[in-house]
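Morning run. Coffee first, then this:
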Amino acid sequence: MPVKLEHIRTPNDADWIDIEKIHKDTASQQGLTSTPMEVSSRLAAGDWIVAARFNDRVIGLILAHQQDNQVWIDQAAVRTITQRRGVMHQTLFLLMKWAREQSLTLICQNVPVQLQTALSRRGFQQQGEQWICNPAD
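And here it is:
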């Protein structure tokens, strides 16, 4: 399932519907645990959504915020109906490509144990409680 990466700072009405669906699908599995209202607050504070789009719908997302040359990412989630189709793999791949082009380091923290192997395979290295990927390396 090919996806397009999009950085969303101001979701449209359809995006909010998709965000709500992703939250309902994944909150109990440590996916998108923030409610749409909490996501809205994060966006207002300068964070953004790294979205995976397919057929004009957001089917996966990662929340992000930037500090200097570091992008902190968390709450990666994919709609249940599109899981196991490589959506998050593509999203991370495209995000890493973007980070490399921008000379940015990606940092995750509080990564669930079941996702740590996947991050390691994609070039993230564990440093204490954080998982760090410097795509320029």
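The CA atoms of residues 96 and 135 lie 6 Å apart. Good start to the day.
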